[in-house]
Amino acid sequence: xxxxxxxxxxxxxxxxSEQYRNFPMVPRVVYGTGSFDQLGDILMxxxxxxxxxxxxxxxxxxxxTALLQRVPxxxxxxxxxxxxxxxxxxxxxxxxxxxxxADFNELxxxxxxxxxxxxMDLAKAVAIMLTNKGSAxxxxxxxxxxxxxxxxVGIPTISGTGAEVSRTTVLMGPDKKLGINSDYTTFDQxxxxxxxxxxxxKHQWFYTGMDCFxxxxxxxxxxxxxxxxxxxxxxSLELCxxxxxxxxxxxxxxxxxxxxxxxxxxxxxxxxVGVAHAMSYGLGYVLGVKxxxxxxxxxxxxxxxYPEGVSIFKDMLQKHAIELPKGICANLSSEDMDTxxxxxxxxxxxxxxxxxxxxxxxxxxxxxxxxxxxx
Length: 375
Ligand code: NAD
Ligand code: ZN
Description:
The chain has 375 residues and is of the alpha/beta class. The chain is built from 15 helices and nine strands. A six-stranded parallel sheet has the order 1-9-6-4-2-3, with helices on one face. Strands 5-8-7 form a three-stranded mixed sheet.
């Protein structure tokens, strides 16, 4: 136990001056409107044989739509429709893996996630767990995955999380909400087709887009910042401002947000997120509030930490006439509030990035409670 903990700590993303991380990037990416139709050709050389299927995990919002007809299934390939109403859970990953292992004689040739952060994270986790024993919950943490994953492809249909480029898959486990951070998590192939984000409802577009905006603000204002993260973060922030405060054609807006998400993800790969994400994890853990909206709910009250970012965020809210829900924490029991604060405070690297090594002197339980109570 002691040894495992040590390994975990050593690999937790920390300030760059202490350790330069050798992190993987997505080795192959296709970008362009209509590029989704190249999927069949891309997968063909990865098919081991006809008994080793491609498994397509697809957001069930696409049930009965033309997109589903365009999924290039052959042989014994399977499409599994999945609801993105709740964030992915370790037990859901385990169940999917068990179904796939029971239904096929061979390991799949590939796992293809088509959807938002929820579906892409599931695809990453399933690809890992097909070749690693036990439950997904045993791998939540840093660099606990021993075996390379099955070939996996990410195809975002909503932009903002950066899950298409990141080295993690965020899962709700039995006792924590934490990513499987590993070199085997990153996709082998990504297809960025800005046409796929066409049908996203406005509020969801805003919340997931703000996840990207908040990644930039937290990365650019963090103590872990370095020229690598800054270059991606600045580009992403510029694109977010154009998308949410400028004038664009619908296609331009989709194209820019898709690339903002990519750059935002690259920016945090070599730095960290900050206060909004730490507190949003607490909201997600206790109340099931989803990542994008959770970040927005917290971020609006973080003027003290990110004055400029919060002011821009409020302009964006106003421009798009978004009213954030209120009273989310109003009826929280003191036990739940305590848990929420404990979960948030547990995100140590995020606090270190946001506030420096002495973050504990700045952030107290009372302080967090006073912010949560406003939400
Ligand atoms: P999501 O995948 O949860 O989807 C949000 C909603 O949009 C769903 O109702 C979904 O059905 C719908 N939707 C998606 N594409 C659509 C389309 N083209 N048309 C119509 N509706 C569409 O949203 P998200 O914000 O992308 O993902 C959130 C998840 O991502 C969380 O679970 C979070 O933990 C995770 N996340 C992961 C990372 C990472 O690096 N791995 C980073 C940030 C967030
Ligand atoms: Zn995020």
